[in-house]
Amino acid sequence: MDLYDFFPAWELKCHCGKCDYGQKDMNAVFMQRLINLRLRSAYPFRLNRAVSCPDHDKRIGGAGIHPTGHCIDIEILCQDHAQYIIFNARDHGFTGIGVKMHGPYRGRLIHLDDLPEDLPGRIRPAIWTYP
Q1: DSSP label at 52?
Q2: Got the DSSP string for 4-46?
Q3: Is 112 helix (H, G, I), strand (E, B) or coil?
Q4: Which residues are CB-neighbours of 99 under 8 A, at least 6 positions away?
């Protein structure tokens, strides 16, 4: 099975429309973790955002994490799916879990990353919520 069978190239592409950041910029170990979580969950993950070029990340107020290829934002349309992802992500090697479960369903998401917990210059929570 290819690492990208579950995620088409357009879903992994930067949303700026000007660069070629995309599937090739996703970290292979991160993608294997994501695939393992996806296989275990038995339902599809729709990605809101994967890799971004540094310019686009800065323009939308990102924290500089998406350009690394070590994170994604999963669109959440079902409370059961959110609970499964939140409760099982750490077991699959994800170290950062961001949760936004308020507002319109289209804007609800779970952010997952596998970045080191001790990033230089900042103390990073393992789980956080978005305003």
Answers
A1: -
A2: TTTS-HHHHS-TTSSS--SGGGS-HHHHHHHHHHHHHHTS--E
A3: strand
A4: 82, 86, 110, 111, 127, 128, 129, 130
Measured CA angle at 99 (ends 111, 97), to 5 deg: 50
Q: How far does CA 47 lie from the centroid of its chain?
A: 7
CB-hemisphere CA count at 13 Å for 19? 18
- Name the pTM for this structure: 0.90
Domains of the chain, CATH where assigned: 9-129 (3.30.1380)
Q: What are phi and psi of 40, to 5 degrees?
A: -70, -30
How do the pLDDT tens digits run along the chain, 131 residues long? 565 678 888 999 999 999 999 999 999 999 999 999 999 988 889 999 999 999 999 999 888 889 999 999 999 988 889 999 999 999 999 999 999 999 888 889 999 999 887 666 667 788 999 88
Tokens 């294997």 belong to residue: 32
Q: What is the largest CA-CA distance in the chain?
A: 38
CB 100 within 8 A of CB 60: no
